[in-house]
Amino acid sequence: MIKTVEDFDLKNKKVIVRVDFNVPIKDGIITDDNRIKESLKTINYIREHEGKVILLSHLGRIKTEEDKVKNTLLPVSIRLSELLNTKVTFIKETRGIELEKAINNMQNKDVLLMENTRFEDLDGKKESGNDEELGRYWASLGDIFINDAFGTCHRAHASNVGIASNLPCGMGFLVKKELDNMLPVMEKPELPFTVILGGAKVSDKIGVIENLIDKCDYLLIGGGMAYTFLKAQGKEIGKSLLDSEMIDYCKNLLLKTNKIILPIDNVTSKDLGSNICEVKEKLDYDDIGLDIGPKTRLLFQKYIKESKTIIWNGPMGMFENPLYCEGTRSICESFNKEQTVIVGGGDSASAVINLGYKDRVSHISTGGGASLELLEGKALPGIEILRSK
Questions:
Q1: What is the pLDDT of residues 167-188, one digit of tens each?
Q2: 59 lies in the same domain as 159
Q3: Is the domain of 194 the same as that of 134?
Q4: Are residues 125 and 234 in the same domain?
């Protein structure tokens, strides 16, 4: 049983919260603040219960001193302050006297955000390598640890597993929402159960396929990974994406099960930079498949509409280009509110939100890698450490 933030007496306590503020920033401006908004429920709960909120997050990857300039959390602190309608103290350090003094001077309901945890990766990858000393140090700054960063739960870092190993700990509302929505669907889905997979490589989705193929009724495959399956059937795929090392795997899987539904037509182009595309059932040697075609959309919609539970991970094509977004859009349009529809993070989540279909799905995961590993049936280190305490 994992404790939640609601299981702790928070009054007068310094509560360290690992959040996921890994948001896109261009020229110092946040272009999508959804992850910040998702953290507000936990932050506000702690403040309402007289706790002191100490926030930790990463942003991007830090390999050089130059990376620190473009990946500072300062813009996040400004936006968070606006959303909370209260002052957020930003400390431009990840350790040291300035940070310790600021935390010791906090009053109940105060909010403090320290600098990007991955700044510690410049000195021997101490954050992403789960350095024990760093985990103990960060833990020493607080009384309670709450993990509310689902997007990093598949990684054992100093800022999640390291801190949790040294403090009373639990999960925030966002992590609880992710687990409450995803685990029951995977363990006992209402039938018929359809899995929709897209994206580039079969090798990226083997774990999901292996974990769900026996549980689902249908597995619809689109996106770049579909062409490796089509190649395994002996079909011409032109210059489309090919995961050549996975051809034999696909061939054997197609022989073992009749659950897999593949595209029967495709939107193609001769050149990725061209605005000229065609719909083809058979590809030529120089074609590039970039989206599922209209016949495939209708075929996939047929299976989706008769399903009661759906898990979707990966777009049907190069959806960011308007020429090749109709396949992904057609998937979104097939959903209805009576179904349980779980959308894995990453590109499929981005597609649902950006194409305007957020209200048609039951749950959109905030963690691409974490949701993928959960769909693979893997234990997530950031969750397991909470379970063991």
A1: 999 999 999 999 999 999 989 9
A2: yes
A3: no
A4: no
Q: How far apart are CA 159 and CA 212, in angstroms?
A: 31
Catalytic residue, candidates 60, 129, 207, 369: 369
Is residue 369 annotated as part of the catalytic site, yes or no? Answer: yes
201, 308, 360, 389: which is the annotated catalytic residue? 201
Q: Are 296 and 326 in contact (CB under 8 A)?
A: no
Q: Is 188 a catalytic residue?
A: no
What's the CATH number where 97 sits?
A: 3.40.50.1260
346 part of the active site: yes
pLDDT, one tens digit per residue, over 350-362 is 899 989 999 999 9
Active site residue 259: no
pTM, two decimal places: 0.91
Hey, how many other C-beta atoms are within 10 angstroms of the C-beta on 354? 14
- What confidence category does residue 366 fall into, taking pLDDT thresholds of 50, 70 and 90? confident
Domain count, the chain: 2
Whether residue 308 lies inside any domain: the answer is yes
The one-letter amino acid at 227: Y
Choose, from 289, 327, 345, 346, the residue flagged as catalytic.
346
The C-alpha atoms of residue 344 and residue 349 are separated, in whole angstroms, by 6
What range does the domain containing 268 cover? Answer: 189-375
